[in-house]
Amino acid sequence: MHKQNMILRHKLFDRICHWFVVAAGLVTFLTGFAFFFPSFQWLGSIAGTPQMARFVHPIAGLLMCLPLMLMLVRYYHHNKWEKNDLTWMLAIKDVMFENEDKIPAIGHYNPGQKVLFRTFVVTSIGLTITGFMMWQPYFAPHFAAITIQWAILIHAICAVIMLIFVIVHFWMATWVEGSVAGMLYGYVSRAWCKKHHPNMLNDPELKTNKQEKH
Amino acid sequence: MSAQDIILSSGTSELTPAAQVRRKLSKVAKLFDATKCSGCKACQVSCSEWNDLRAPVGSFQGSYQNPMDLSSECWTLMKYNEIEQDNKLRWNFTHSACMHCADPACLTACSTKGAIVQRANGVVDFESDKCTGCGYCVSACPFNVPRLDPIDQKAYKCSMCSDRLQVGQEPACVKSCVTGALKYGTREDMLFIADLRIKELHKQGFTKAGLYSPEGVGGTGMMMILHDVSQPENYGLPADPKTSVPVKLWQDVVKPLGTAGILATVAVACLHRITVGRNIVEEDEPAAFDHTHSDKSDKE
């Protein structure tokens, strides 16, 4: 952290948002797992009792999805599809096997991260809408039984897709060392940028802790 | 009730079946004969008496039916279906309560292990202390029977007086029926009685009379003799009730596929970590520490 010339990758607000989503998401997924796999009801015990898990799940879910919408606004410009992205996607094998000289240069986010981010946004919108439709006792009574049944199905599909992408997110973040520290404290080293997100260094708004010293 | 009397339990699969050696016990059934019913509501009252249920007193809604719908505190309701035929008004009485399906959609949809069970005698019962109030059974039931209680948020419905059945008695509603429209016994006996009665009705001129025990739910533990079985809608009953497509897709496709997808992702991730190894950045700058304690600002 006190190394010179560290580069700011995630601002404080975004970091707080991210870890808030992680905390709320942990509760949401564990309690949700309890309903999806009744044999694993004990996972929902994080909320206390099964009845409490049922009560907490939709609230924790909203706390997970709403900050994600804030992050969508904050990170929108980083997640636009660029021309270079297709070549990167086609070189995904080299990315996974660390054939560094063959990986096309990319900016703040690589296309894989963009797909991941977009999936989180789409699934969380799906989860929020269907979640409201099946939310007992407040909102579900306003919907027809068959509508609720489809909502439950779509809710489960969205949750499974989101969980798979969460696993990929966790896997990549822990594999590419320095990423977690970047999300925790905001800064990554210049060498890290050069290796993983070289075009980030061309960003005119690039901030380092040196420049930040007023 | 003996735990060994539970042959089907919600939240379990073929891999973890409920104790079911006593599944060959005779199935019981309630037979409601709409052609004999006079709409006296004795069944409704005795249900509320025996089960200690007191639904709030409602207001007049232009019908003899009261309350207008089943609720967590009304498990049996005498429905006064008003049908107009040949410019004449007719009442189609329906003894409305749980149908005790052989293949219960509520049990399939339930999110909690053991909150909905099927007993060896075929009765579908709710274990309310285990209910979490998710409402999946409420939306899944093709007969719209289970209801969430507004106070404790648990689902309730007719238990066919399983406490009475346990000690060899008939359900309270059957006990109090004055016209013999409600009968109780083994399902086999009820089918036999129904068959005789329907033949008699055919002779009397009710050529469309028949037994309502829909196959879509595997047959029901409450069967009904209707004047015109080709139009169950006239009795407020669904024509083809069954476990719906989304509930089946959710349980039989999304759950196994989702599980496989999640496990496969974890497996690939672990394998990748072990084979490709760590992804470390070689720092090209000397690890010089800035002792000036830069007051970097990352707050934007």
TrEMBL record, chain A:
Q: Name one GO biological process term.
A: anaerobic respiration
The record's keywords, sorted A to Z, are:
Cell membrane, Electron transport, Heme, Iron, Membrane, Metal-binding, Transmembrane, Transmembrane helix, Transport
Subcellular location per UniProt equals: Cell membrane
What's the chief localization of this chain? membrane
Q: Which domain of life does the protein's organism represent?
A: Bacteria
User: Which InterPro entries does the protein's record reference?
Assistant: Cyt_b561_bac/Ni-Hgenase (IPR011577), Di-haem_cyt_TM (IPR016174), FDH_cytochrome_b556_subunit (IPR051817), Formate_DH_gsu (IPR006471)
Mind telling me which GO cellular component terms the entry cites? formate dehydrogenase complex; plasma membrane
- Report the residue ranges that make up the Cytochrome b561 bacterial/Ni-hydrogenase domain in this protein: 9-183
- Pfam families from the xrefs? Ni_hydr_CYTB
The cofactor named in the record is: heme
Return one GO MF term: formate dehydrogenase (NAD+) activity
Q: Which Gene3D superfamilies match?
A: Transmembrane di-heme cytochromes, Chain C
As for membrane topology, the entry says: Multi-pass membrane protein
Q: Where do transmembrane segments lie in this chain?
A: 20-43, 55-73, 115-135, 147-173
UniProt family annotation: Belongs to the formate dehydrogenase gamma subunit family.
Concerning NCBIfam families, the annotation shows: formate-DH-gamm
Q: What is this protein called?
A: Formate dehydrogenase, gamma subunit
Query: Which taxonomic lineage is given here?
Result: Bacteria, Pseudomonadati, Pseudomonadota, Gammaproteobacteria, Alteromonadales
From TrEMBL, chain B:
Annotated localization = Cell membrane
Outline what the protein does: The beta chain is an electron transfer unit containing 4 cysteine clusters involved in the formation of iron-sulfur centers.
Where does this protein have coiled-coil stretches? none
Q: How is the cofactor bound?
A: Binds 4 [4Fe-4S] clusters per subunit.
Kindly list the cofactors needed.
Answer: [4Fe-4S] cluster
Looking at the record, the residues that make up the 4Fe-4S ferredoxin-type domain are 28-58, 122-151
Please give the NCBIfam families that the UniProt record associates with this protein. FDH-beta
Per the record, the gene is: fdxH
What PANTHER family is this protein classified in?
A: FORMATE DEHYDROGENASE, NITRATE-INDUCIBLE, IRON-SULFUR SUBUNIT (PTHR43545)
SUPFAM superfamilies referenced in this protein's UniProt entry, alphabetically: 4Fe-4S ferredoxins (SSF54862)
The protein's name is Formate dehydrogenase iron-sulfur subunit
Record organism? Shewanella schlegeliana
Assigned keywords, A-Z: 4Fe-4S, Cell membrane, Electron transport, Iron, Iron-sulfur, Membrane, Metal-binding, Repeat, Transmembrane, Transport
Main subcellular localisation? membrane
InterPro entries membership: 4Fe4S_Fe-S-bd, 4Fe4S_Fe_S_CS, FDH_Electron_Transfer_Unit, Formate_DH_bsu_Proteobacteria, Formate_DH_C_sf, Formate_DH_Fe-S_su, Formate_DH_TM
